[in-house]
Amino acid sequence: MFVLCGFTLSNYYNKVKLALLEKGVTFTEELVPSGKKSALVLEASPLGKVPFIRTEHGTLCESQVIMDYIEARYPTPSLMPADPWQAGKVRELITFIDLHLELVARELYPKAFFGGELSEANVDRLRKLLTKNIAGFKRLARFAPFVAGDEFTQADCAAFASLPIVAMATRIVYGEDLLAAGGIDWKAYSKLVGERPSAQRVTADRKADQERAAAEKAG
Question: What residue ranges do the domains of the chain occupy?
């Protein structure tokens, strides 16, 4: 029993889904919309965040915690280097992607995608912070051809799921893709990873749900 709970428009959901597909884990998906705070959801994810998983042992939340559990439970094929130092470098990259890029850019999402407001002071603050953090990420990332080197790792699950949305949000708010401006060729990278069957499945499912949601809104 392995159930991935959340929705396909969540980059963190797709990060975990990509890892499961890469490892060939048999799992089912349970739709949990954004912001759903039912007692059942809060029992599994105390802050009502997605994704979370249901297993025969119970529930588990927080995407990177889930990723580490998946790696320990399904070690083959590995998405983490065996060498402790190299594994540490992969986790370093994940931290930069999740916390220093995506979490900062997330403050732009209400303005970029939902018609929300953001003060000019915050817009300027976030641009400066993202510019600094993107430069830091560029110093760490190898793209040779994958984020951490020549092997596909958990860092690629995070990068493939989050880099495009960071780029899109900055382009909408600032009129400029700050990732590209910072020297990150994320489009070529996403095209490379996007050729993997796992990434194609994640992308197809996300697009199908986007189209379904648009049709429901229009109808």
Answer: 2-73, 84-218
The secondary structure of the chain, three-state, reads CEEEEECCCCHHHHHHHHHHHHHCCCCEEEECCCCCCCHHHHHHCCCCCCCEEEECCEEEECHHHHHHHHHHHCCCCCCCCCCHHHHHHHHHHHHHHHHHHHHHHHHHHHHHHCCCCCCHHHHHHHHHHHHHHHHHHHHHCCCCCECCECCCCHHHHHHHHHHHHHHHHHHHHHCCCHHHHCCCCHHHHHHHHCCCHHHHHHHHHHHHHHHHHHHHHHC
* CATH class in words for 2-73: alpha beta
Mean per-residue pLDDT, 129-142 = 98
- CATH fold match for the domains 2-73 and 84-218: no
Q: Tens digit of pLDDT for each residue in 100-120?
A: 999 999 999 999 999 999 999
pLDDT in tens, 155-212: 999 999 999 999 999 999 999 999 999 999 999 999 999 999 999 999 999 999 989 8
Q: What is the CATH number assigned to the segment(s) 84-218?
A: 1.20.1050.10
Give the tens place of pLDDT for each residue, 64-103.
999 999 999 999 999 999 999 999 999 999 999 999 999 9
Instruction: Give dist(CA 40, CA 46) in Å, integer.
Output: 10
pTM: 0.96
